[in-house]
Write a structure and sequence with these properties.
single chain; about 130 residues; mainly alpha; Multidrug-efflux Transporter Regulator, Chain: A, Domain 2; 2 domains; about 5% strand
């Protein structure tokens, strides 16, 4: 085996994923390891794609969004289309995350206020009892 290829175990160790996760991404055609008998061998492109998949998942992209962006890979064009689409999708996702953050901050403030009110009510009821 060359340094360029990794086994499923090496991939799992390198990226802190399970074999099931790798097989799932393979079934979704996000990665396409070389098959030698029962063995899956992952090359540099598979590793790069997995890194992008995991990063995309961390940012909240769906697997379908990630797949669409990965399909735009075209080194002959310098990946301009892929980069443009990734920037656009990332800006949209960032805007969604910022809206969610604002909603969460409001919910946290409201819940904090509700808890404080309930604690005051409980304290008053205990005094009166």
């Amino acid at each position: 085996m060359t340094d360029d290829l990794m086994t499923i175990r090496q991939m799992c160790d390198e990226f802190d994923v399970t074999p099931r996760t790798l097989r799932f991404y393979e079934s979704r055609e996000l990665i396409a390891p070389e098959r030698r008998g029962q063995h899956r061998l992952y090359d540099r492109q598979d590793r790069a794609r997995l890194k992008l998949i995991l990063q995309g998942k961390r940012f909240g992209f769906s697997l379908e969004q990630i797949r669409q962006l990965l399909e735009l890979y075209d080194p002959r064009s310098g990946n301009v289309t892929q980069i443009e689409a990734t920037i656009s999708a990332s800006r949209d996702r960032l805007a969604d995350m910022m809206r969610q953050q604002e909603e969460l901050e409001t919910a946290i403030a409201d819940l904090t206020e509700q808890i404080a009110g309930a604690e005051k009510l409980l304290e008053a009821r205990r005094r009166d009892a």
